[in-house]
Recover the amino acids of this structure.
């Protein structure tokens, strides 16, 4: 726990030295959304999501990209509510769930409502399931107890331990018909922000949980069957430790790429001014088309096109997707760092 707390403190310190924290969080939140959705079987990629968000339908199942996009909006909604002083409560959890399942796959699974029918995990029916959560008539009472525990000051349980306990309890209650895993993982970050452990929502465990998916599910089940909270908490804290270190390292690598590319662009001479503006825009939107970038930057399309061609020649940008006459370009080095670990799981 001490090692995890120190790593988390170092990560929180990173946000104070980032030149543009919202920019970093913009992409980091999208990576987390993708990874958390992949744990549930989504086959989308980061580029698919970024294309989808430009209102250009990617060449993947639309439901997958919509599902990841919903997660981004749900996360941002929850964080905004917390910043406005709204408590981490059952009402907020239902709001987040409503946003998560509002469109696409799952939209017929009672978004924003606790389940009124029995669900189960694994198997074809409760009789052969791996785990059967509590019956629906118990949900309100159990979730009320969980809400009370979230806000309890005595006994004074360390925040990371509390987050680990809350995650398992939420997943075991399984209060919704769909989306329980994604909401349960969001709760960890929301709790750390609500408790002031993190100034910015920069810790997301989904890459660790995706990499150790089988162990994750097995340890949740061992708590339910054997009360083995200690092994689960050791696994959870290891995840916090490794994820904190990876996030801090990722931030440093991205800043290094931005700096090196900026220096290369400055050597272009006269075209450098507009190319630097396009480069700056690519840091916040690493997949772009010429018309969209021109509009956002208030530059002419020919100017933006020439700038992008300069960036292509420098090896900073590459053409990534063509739809009709529209061509999309990706910030190669930046996306390659963000893409690490985002390969879809086998279907």
């Amino acid at each position: 726990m001490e090692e995890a707390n120190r790593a988390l403190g170092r990560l929180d310190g990173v946000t104070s030295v980032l030149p543009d924290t919202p920019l970093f969080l913009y992409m980091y939140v999208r990576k987390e959304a993708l990874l958390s959705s992949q744990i549930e079987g989504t086959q989308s990629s980061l580029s698919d999501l970024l294309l989808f968000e430009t209102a250009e339908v990617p060449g993947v199942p639309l439901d997958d990209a919509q599902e990841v996009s919903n997660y981004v909006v749900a996360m941002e909604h929850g964080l905004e509510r917390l910043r406005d002083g709204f408590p981490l409560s059952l009402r907020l959890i239902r709001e987040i769930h409503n946003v998560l399942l509002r469109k696409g796959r799952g939209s017929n699974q009672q978004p924003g409502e606790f389940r009124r029918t029995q669900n189960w995990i694994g198997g074809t029916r409760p009789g052969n399931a791996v785990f059967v959560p509590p019956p629906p008539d118990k949900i309100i009472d159990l979730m009320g107890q969980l809400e009370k525990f979230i806000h309890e000051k005595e006994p004074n349980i360390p925040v990371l331990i509390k987050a680990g306990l809350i995650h398992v309890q939420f997943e075991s209650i399984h209060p919704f018909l769909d989306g329980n895993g994604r909401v349960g993982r969001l709760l960890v970050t929301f709790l750390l922000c609500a408790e002031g452990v993190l100034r910015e929502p920069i810790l997301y465990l989904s890459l660790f949980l995706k990499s150790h998916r089988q162990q994750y599910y097995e340890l949740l089940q061992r708590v339910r069957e054997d009360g083995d909270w200690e092994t689960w908490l050791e696994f959870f804290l290891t995840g916090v430790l490794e994820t904190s270190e990876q996030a801090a390292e990722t931030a440093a690598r991205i800043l290094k790429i931005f700096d090196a590319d900026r220096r290369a662009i400055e050597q272009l001479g006269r075209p450098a001014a507009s190319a630097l503006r396009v480069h700056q825009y690519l840091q916040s939107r690493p997949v772009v088309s010429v018309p969209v970038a021109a509009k956002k930057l208030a530059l002419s399309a020919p100017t933006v096109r020439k700038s992008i061609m300069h960036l292509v020649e420098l090896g900073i940008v590459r053409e990534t997707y063509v739809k009709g006459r529209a061509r999309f370009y990706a910030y190669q080095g930046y996306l390659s760092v963000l893409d690490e670990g985002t390969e879809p799981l086998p279907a």
